[in-house]
Each structure stands twice: as C-alpha cells, then as structure tokens.
C-alpha cells in the first residue's frame, strides 16, 4: 500500500550496463533477493516504475532517507465506460492530482446508437460484466494482477453495474452519485459501506410545460429521499484536456449543445428567427442528433465528441443553459472553462456556488434568463452592448473555474477526506 512516509532508498549511481542514474535517482527497496534487488524507483526525467537490479551489476550505491518523494496512491475508478459521461473526466482529475489510476467496469463504446470516436473512448483496464458486483470480488481481480488499490471510487450513473458490500482492510471506498438522489440511490446506499459518500445533484423540482413552453416549476414528490447526512456535495467540474479555453474566433453570439429535449428545440428555432431571420429546423431533424446546426449568429444541436462540444463553446460569445430546477448542470463549468459566457435560469444552488449573477453583481460570473426567448434576447443584448462587459465576465469565470472547479480539485477533495496523501503534482 502507498504511504506518505520517509523511507529507506538506495541511490544507484551506475549499473553493470553503464547506465548512469545520478545522485538524484531514488529507489525504494521492496525486497532483497539472493542475486538482485527488487525496487520501485524514480530516475530523473522518467516515470516511477519497478526496477529489477542485479546485485552484481551495482558498482556503487548509498543508502539514505527519501524525504521529498512519495509513492503514488493507487486509485481504481469504477463505472460503465461510455464516452458521454463525467466518469472519464473524474478519472483524468485523479491522474492530474498525482495518482496511479486504473478503471474497471463494462465497456460501452456506443453512444446513442453510434460507435464513438477513438479519442472520446477510454476502455476499462479491468473489463467487468454489466451487473451488480461485490467489492471483495473486484479486489480479488486486482490482487491477481498484483495491483491492490488504496482507494476504490464508484461513479454511479444509475447503471446496472454498481458495487455492493464493504472494502477489505487497507482499502478505502468512495461513492460518487452523479444523477439526482432519488429512491434508487437510497436503495444502493443501504447495500454498501463506503468510507466517503458524495452526491452531485439533489433537487425535488421539475418544469411545468404548456405548449412546449416552461410556465413554472413544481415539487415532484413530497417523499423524495435526501442524501444521507454523511454525503458531501460534489459539484460538477471541468476536465481541462477536453474543455480547453480555445483561441478560436468567436463569430457566433449564442450556442447550446446537447440532447434536444424540451424546451430546447423551440427556443433554438425562435432564437434563429429573432437573431438571424433563419428558417426553423424541423423537430425531427434536431432529434436525429447528427450534429450542430449553425446560422449567422447561432449554433445549436447535438455534439458527438468532447472536442466538438469544446469547439462549439469556443466559437460562441455566450452559451445557453436550462437547469429547470435548483441545481448546477454539468454544462456550467464547461462554459466557464471555454470562455463562453453563461446565460441560464436563476436558482439558489448556482448562487451558492458562484455568487449572484451579473448585473445584480458587478463581479458576477454568469447572467440569467427567465426561460423565455424574450428574456434570453434581452440578456444577450446587454452582454454584447459593450465589449468590456462580456470580456470581463469571461475572464473572471475562467479564473474561478481553473482555481476551484476542475476535476483535479475534486480528486484532491476525495483524497483529503480519505486521508490519502497524493503526489501533489500539477500536470
């Protein structure tokens, strides 16, 4: 198991093959055999790896304390491996936080009936069946591979694959509930014993529609369960490699990407008409989800790849979002990280996380609409009226996101809660 403690190391200056390691090479001796040393080591400029060093090949060495280095915590991320999911981005965050990360779970390289692009799919290291699985059985698989995790993190998206039970001694277990906490999450909570619990969404509201227009918000159910008292809020964040702040020409005024559920298609068509006098796109065309559709000032529709979504945000001055409830959608940090100023419906959780919106707050990171085309056009006009306004919001939101809301920050939070010491590196 990885420990953040000083350890004895052997500094191998040169071996029989005349490979010079130098004074800064550091190897933790795992065991000494009759003819060789088995050590885990770090050579300057190279990654940490296992070294089999023949005794007769060691021409000179010295023993001393290894204070500045630590072994990397081993983190096993468990989830259904599909391209459109926060789970791969959470895994990326643990890697950037300085962990040795592997993943386990079913392979699902199909998104909405289409084979995903190779750049958007990260296959599981341990491919597992799409069923409920005992945590002990998963650890046995890792032991057979001579790789025992320090932490197992289950990223639950209401899939049929999930873990039950409790971890064996020496292994910490964390659970991240991605979807809204409802009855199914409560059932699964009662089937496990995790060391740390997290939830991304907890709201009990839904939009009221009339003629495909939102006319209000209502409470869904009076008996909706709440996350357990020991469950900590895990706000959605951004994965820096897939959501870069792009230096593209922002020649669109507003965008929105995603699945075309209500009220998106009607709002999209109304904005196309109001801003560009562009003809409406038939609803069935939006629902085919073949890609985004652009007009002179707008770009709306489905994004098939992470890079495509980042590019849509990167060419737009603003981006539209409908929470339709009291929570933070995962599109929020995406907007902040790519520089598209966010226009979304007001709610308490957004204010809790990011402060009051502009112009109510002169230093606001986002702006609001009232779930109507008129209010969206009005807010857009105010933002674009003076260049300094939108640029200052864009830069403040980006700085806030990079300082607090990347998945590397979320990974550090989990590791800290579990009292696991990471390598504290930035990549």
Strand content: 25-35%
Number of domains: 3
Taking all residues together, what is the mean pLDDT?
Answer: 81
Beginning-to-end CA distance, first to last residue: 24 Å
In which range does the helix fraction lie?
25-40%
CATH architecture heading of the largest domain: 3-Layer(aba) Sandwich
Protein described:
The chain has 427 residues and is of the alpha/beta class. The protein has three domains: 8-65; 74-237 and 408-417, Rossmann fold; 241-405, 3-Layer(aba) Sandwich (Rossmann fold). Helix content is 26%, strand content 28%. The protein contains eleven helices and 24 strands. The strands form six sheets. It has a seven-stranded parallel sheet with strand order 10-7-6-12-14-15-18, with helices on one face. Strand 2 and strand 3 form a beta hairpin. Helix 7 crosses helix 10 (387-404). Mean pLDDT is 81; it is low at 1-24, 28-32, 40-52 and 55-70.
Short description:
This protein is an alpha/beta fold and 427 residues long. It contains eleven helices and 24 strands.
Itemize the secondary structure elements and their pairings:
Layout: E1 8-14, E2 26-32, E3 36-42, E4 49-54, E5 60-65, E6 74-78, H1 87-96, E7 100-105, E8 110-111, E9 114-115, E10 126-127, E11 132-134, H2 135-144, E12 151-156, E13 162-164, E14 172-180, H3 183-189, E15 196-201, E16 205-210, E17 213-219, E18 231-233, E19 252-257, H4 264-276, H5 283-287, E20 292-294, E21 298-301, H6 306-314, E22 316-321, H7 331-338, E23 341-345, H8 348-354, E24 367-369, H9 373-385, H10 387-404, H11 407-417
Parallel strand pairs: 6-7, 6-12, 7-10, 11-13, 12-14, 14-15, 15-18, 19-21, 19-22, 22-23, 23-24
Antiparallel strand pairs: 1-2, 1-5, 2-3, 3-4, 8-9, 16-17, 20-21
Helix pairs in contact: 1-11, 7-10
């Amino acid at each position: 198991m990885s420990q953040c403690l000083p350890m004895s190391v052997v500094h191998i200056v040169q071996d029989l093959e005349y490979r010079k390691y130098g004074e800064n090479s550091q190897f933790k001796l795992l065991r000494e055999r009759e003819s060789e040393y088995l050590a885990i080591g770090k050579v300057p400029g190279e990654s940490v790896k296992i070294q089999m060093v023949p005794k007769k090949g060691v021409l000179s060495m010295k023993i001393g304390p290894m204070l500045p280095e630590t072994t990397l915590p081993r983190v096993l991320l468990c989830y259904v491996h599909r391209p459109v999911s926060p789970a791969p981005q959470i895994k990326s965050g643990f890697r950037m936080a300085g962990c040795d990360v592997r993943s386990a779970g079913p392979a699902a390289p199909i998104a909405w009936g289409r084979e995903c692009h190779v750049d958007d799919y990260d296959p599981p290291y341990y491919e597992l069946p799409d069923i409920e699985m005992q945590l002990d059985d998963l650890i046995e698989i890792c032991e057979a591979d001579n790789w025992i995790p320090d932490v197992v993190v289950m990223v639950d998206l209401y899939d049929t694959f999930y873990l039950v039970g409790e971890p064996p001694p020496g292994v910490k277990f964390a659970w991240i509930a991605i979807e809204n906490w409802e009855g199914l999450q409560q059932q699964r909570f009662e089937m496990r014993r995790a060391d740390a619990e997290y939830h991304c969404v907890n709201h009990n509201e839904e939009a009221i529609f009339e003629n495909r227009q939102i006319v209000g918000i209502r409470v869904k159910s009076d008996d909706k369960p709440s996350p357990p008292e020991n469950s900590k809020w895990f706000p959605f964040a951004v994965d820096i490699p897939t959501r870069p702040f792009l230096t593209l020409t922002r020649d669109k005024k507003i965008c929105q990407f995603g699945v075309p559920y209500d009220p998106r298609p009607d709002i999209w068509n109304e904005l196309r008409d109001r801003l560009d006098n562009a003809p409406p796109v038939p609803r069935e065309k939006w629902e085919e989800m073949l890609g985004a559709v652009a007009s002179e000032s707008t770009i709306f529709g489905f994004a098939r790849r992470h890079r495509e979504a980042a590019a849509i945000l990167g060419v737009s001055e603003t981006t539209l979002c409908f929470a339709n409830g009291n929570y933070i959608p995962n599109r929020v940090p995406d907007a902040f990280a790519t520089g598209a100023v966010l226009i979304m419906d007001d709610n308490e959780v957004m204010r809790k996380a990011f402060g009051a919106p502009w112009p109510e707050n002169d230093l606001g990171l986002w702006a609001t609409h009232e779930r109507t085309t008129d209010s969206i056009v009005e807010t857009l006009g105010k933002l674009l009226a003076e260049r300094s306004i939108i640029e200052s919001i864009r830069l403040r939101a980006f700085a806030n996101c990079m300082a607090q809301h990347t998945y590397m920050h979320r990974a550090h939070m989990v590791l800290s809660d579990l009292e696991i010491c990471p390598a504290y590196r930035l990549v």
